[in-house]
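Researcher: Quick test of sequence recovery. Tokens follow.
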């Protein structure tokens, strides 16, 4: 009689295409489920769009709602314990979204047990309502390095392939996972994908400890995300714009809005300016 372990089905060789946050995370999940995985990518993790992200947990410009809520909840639950290890680049902060008119509870509220209405000191002058929630912000450079290390320590390999990626993917891997983001527009002939240009400014931290966001009010679009040694200021969400070069005019506008929302930022020094192209779609394609 065979031992149970000897009759378990063999997991197929798997190729994950793309080495951003979603590519690395997918590869790790598959690897830890017993799949032999390699990543094929045009760019190293540090050079992907993920490296430009702000980044903080928040269901932003993503549909369909009924699928996004459980996805968001699962992501938050996976990220929160990582805040106990500084090497992951994950921490925990209070994030406040501000409104200049009364609003209903958000559709994603079930994904956040810590959700509460913003009141008192949560609100900035000129704002009458808001959401406050405890969320995990990420420092992309640190988090991507953590994911890459976790994947390679588990025996995974990352192949950098600037050209001919579709031919390489077809070799010796019956299971293919596409995590190419905006690249899927050409790789998979998916014309429903479009770019959403985002620009952020990184500045020194003058002592801020909570995140702020105005998505719809007088300073839209403005977000302020404190991290361990700096603050990320944003931003833009320019649908259909393919130019990923930072704009001086946009930088000045981001700084002015952020300093208006949080006057302490007037003492902050600009450290870096970056722009990237978020993959946009009317609904997430997950098959």
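Model:
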């Amino acid at each position: 009689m065979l031992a149970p372990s000897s009759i378990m089905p063999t997991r197929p060789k798997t190729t994950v295409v793309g080495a951003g946050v979603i590519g690395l995370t997918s590869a790790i999940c598959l690897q830890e489920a017993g799949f032999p995985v390699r990543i094929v990518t045009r760019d190293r993790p540090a050079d992907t769009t993920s490296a430009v992200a702000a980044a903080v947990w928040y269901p932003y410009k993503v549909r369909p709602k009924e699928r996004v809520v459980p996805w968001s909840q699962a992501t938050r639950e996976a990220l929160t314990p990582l805040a106990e290890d500084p090497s992951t680049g994950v921490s925990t902060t209070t994030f406040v979204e501000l409104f200049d008119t009364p609003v209903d509870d958000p559709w994603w509220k079930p994904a956040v047990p810590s959700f509460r209405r913003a009141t008192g000191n949560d609100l900035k002058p000129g704002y009458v309502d808001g959401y406050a929630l405890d969320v995990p912000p990420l420092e992309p450079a640190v988090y991507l390095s953590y994911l890459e290390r976790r994947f390679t320590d588990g025996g995974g390999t990352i192949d950098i392939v600037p050209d001919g990626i579709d031919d390489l993917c077809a070799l010796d891997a019956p299971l293919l996972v596409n995590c190419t983001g905006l690249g899927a527009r050409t790789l998979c002939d998916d014309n429903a994908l479009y770019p959403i240009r985002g620009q952020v400014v990184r500045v020194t931290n003058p002592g801020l400890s909570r995140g702020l966001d105005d998505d719809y009010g007088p300073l839209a679009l403005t977000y302020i995300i404190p991290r361990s040694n700096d603050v990320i200021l944003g931003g833009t969400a320019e649908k259909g714009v393919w130019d990923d070069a930072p704009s001086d005019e946009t930088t000045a506008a981001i700084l002015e809005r952020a300093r208006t929302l949080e006057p302490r930022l007037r003492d902050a020094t600009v450290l870096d300016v970056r722009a990237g192209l978020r993959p946009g779609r009317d609904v997430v394609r997950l098959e």
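The first helix runs from residue 21 to 32.
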